[in-house]
Amino acid sequence: MEDILRLRKINKSFPGVKALTDVDLTLKKGEVHALVGENGAGKSTLMKTISGAYKKDSGSIWFDGKEVEVTSPKQSELMGISIIYQELNLIERITVAENVFTGRYPLKHGLVQWGKMTRDAQALFDEFDLKIDAKRLVRSLTMAQKQMVEIIKAVSINAKVIIMDEPTSSLSSKETESLFRIIRKLKANGVAVVFITHRLDEIFAVCDRMTVLRDGHYIGERDIQSITKSEMIAMMIGRELTQQYPERSNEIGEVTLEVKNISDGGKHVNDVSFSARRGEVLGFYGLVGAGRTETMRMIFGVDPKAGGQVFLHGKEIHLKSPRDAIGHGIGFITENRRDEGLFLRSSVRVNTVMVALGKILSHGFINYKKEAEVSQHYVDKLRTATPSINQKAMFLSGGNQQKVVLSKWLFSDSEIIIFDEPTRGIDVGARREIYQIINDLVADGKTVVVVSSDMEEIMGVSDRILVMYEGNVAGEVQKEDFSQSLITEYAVGERTQPV
Ligand SMILES: Nc1ncnc2c1ncn2[C@@H]1O[C@H](COP(=O)(O)OP(=O)(O)OP(=O)(O)O)[C@@H](O)[C@H]1O
Ligand SMILES: [Mg+2]
């Protein structure tokens, strides 16, 4: 097969960071190419140099047999390269069709042909069997549907290369399946797709070849057919990874957190009751939209509850804000680090100590030496890739931002720690570190609640699993009964159990 894109010896530096060193990538027409590597390896940066968002320092780019200079996002798009960022780029308050044809509205005698535009957009959605109404406002779509709109937009400009930067990280497994169907169709149409993900199973499911980066260096290129998962991991992290879920020695004790009949008036949460124990990891599984995050947000005081009670050590507590929750020793590591977890303009060190400032005060003043020690400790412990603890959070890669969010809650010493999708966007090596941290927390007598949509993960980390379905707890599964089929039956509403 012919090459559509060739990158040779690409270099890119930021102040204090050499993000890419002599990186090569060869993309063939009609292939799905995985770009993999640990958090901060340089994947997003490399893609931004070909989409025109960043200017490379040196190296060459060959597109369709010709050497090209990419000078701007517009030019890259005109050439036939389209990139779908994780933080999507759609305009929320206009229609799907208008988004697809942004900047290219069909004109006749100087007037926009709205009807034609809507019909053309709809035809593309139909061609891909996507049940999205082109007349709807983007605002009313789900995350997965918005992503589909971005893909159709790429198709409509006849993109020859479509780059997807962690497209599946906020999709349910069913939505991921339909994304794969679209990817296969793009491939059949001769489009080359660059697919970035931290979920290795997805690479085996949909990719043909892969390129591995480590610390900004090119490590190698392989056919997916001729590589095993452990070889893949070894290439990514430069060592063998034994046992993804480390052994745990915890003693499960008395009930610490108890939630009774909590509800948000039926919007997402109808009636949820559960209790969690000292030294226990309680898992919450469910499909996207089952109400798990909304339940946790009420417990943490982010959203008001319409009814129900929360007890800590048997005493009712009233949480009107996250500050109240923190005061009671409850920590919440959110899935949405951009909105809730981090101050992007602040440094790694400031973010790390933020929730537990009291712990680094001496005589009422911030002890900067201690602040530095603490944040350096967590940077080392989680192997956060940052040039220093003074780097602003906004300049870290996605996965490394998540590690900073984790650090601040670890330092805060909460007694109850709620992790909402803790490994989203986190690479395999660091994922194991997070599981180890969860183990350390429960060994230390803390109560850990983990919300995850990843079946393997929820079974790997939990002592007990509650499965939510449409705003209720549909079932409870003890460790000895963990099975994918049982949990799935509860999650899709095919089975319920009074709890
Ligand atoms: N605008 C920027 N300013 C400073 N440093 C940056 C900037 N963008 C990226 N970096 C740094 O470049 C390196 C590579 O980051 P990049 O985002 O490409 O990683 P990644 O492989 O996409 O990681 P992840 O899997 O976490 O998304 C990181 O050390 C990151 O902190
Ligand atoms: Mg990235």
TrEMBL record:
For this protein, the record's PANTHER family field holds: CARBOHYDRATE TRANSPORT ATP-BINDING PROTEIN MG119-RELATED (PTHR43790), D-ALLOSE IMPORT ATP-BINDING PROTEIN ALSA-RELATED (PTHR43790:SF3)
Q: Which locations, inside or outside the cell, does it occupy?
A: Cell membrane
Q: Where do transmembrane segments lie in this chain?
A: none
Print the keywords alphabetically: ATP-binding, Cell membrane, Membrane, Nucleotide-binding, Repeat, Sugar transport, Translocase, Transport
Molecular function in Gene Ontology: ATP binding; ATP hydrolysis activity
The protein's organism comes out as Anaerofilum hominis
| Top-rank taxon | Bacteria
What protein is this chain from?
Sugar ABC transporter ATP-binding protein
Keyword presence, Transcription: no
